[in-house]
Write a structure and sequence with these properties.
The chain has about 170 residues and is mainly alpha-helical. It is built from six helices and no strands.
Length: about 170
């Protein structure tokens, strides 16, 4: 039941990514057509497409973390024996969790400034733009913590069968 809810949540995030990319494409294309054909443009489209790009990056980072799609060097992990691999998986995900904590703390401190600042064209509070760092850091941190617990319990080892990590989507939380 929980796994289906998690899968549904990540499907939702993937749909949000598709909508953000489509929105960016439409706004940039419309702005190009308006500039070259009618010598005008939509200032809002430039600003919103930048905001969409920021959201696309941070939401995409959470989805990529779930699917083991981040670039990494795993020669040591893939060649280590299972007991050592569990230690290395625990440590590497611990480093990811620490980086998420740093991002979360910095974004939280910065949120006071960005909440009172507004974008020049749309007037949107900048907390809606840069605030995406908070749920992104939380999402990646939860996945890393889940993997750390799995490494301790012995239930998380994407290298166990000798295949590539991408073939082990079932290990994703």
């Amino acid at each position: 039941m929980i796994e289906k809810a998690i899968d549904l949540f990540f499907r939702f995030l993937e749909m949000v990514l598709v909508l953000l990319l489509a929105g960016m494409t439409v706004m940039v294309f419309a702005n190009v057509v308006l500039r070259y054909a009618f010598r005008s443009g939509l200032d809002v489209s430039e600003e919103l497409s930048r905001f969409f790009f920021v959201w696309l990056i941070f939401i995409g980072a959470v989805v990529a973390m779930r699917h083991h799609a981040h670039m990494g060097f795993d020669l040591l992990l893939s060649s280590a024996r299972p007991p050592m691999r569990r230690v290395l998986l625990f440590l590497s995900n611990g480093l990811v969790l620490f980086a998420c904590w740093l991002l979360l703390e910095g974004a939280w401190r910065q949120s006071g400034v960005t909440a009172t600042d507004s974008s020049p064209v749309t007037g949107i509070s900048m907390i809606y733009v840069f605030g995406i760092v908070i749920p992104s850091a939380l999402g990646i941190g939860i996945i890393a913590l889940h993997r750390m617990i799995g490494a301790v319990r012995g239930t998380y080892d994407p290298y166990a069968s000798g295949q590539t990590v991408e073939a082990h989507a079932e290990f994703a939380p």
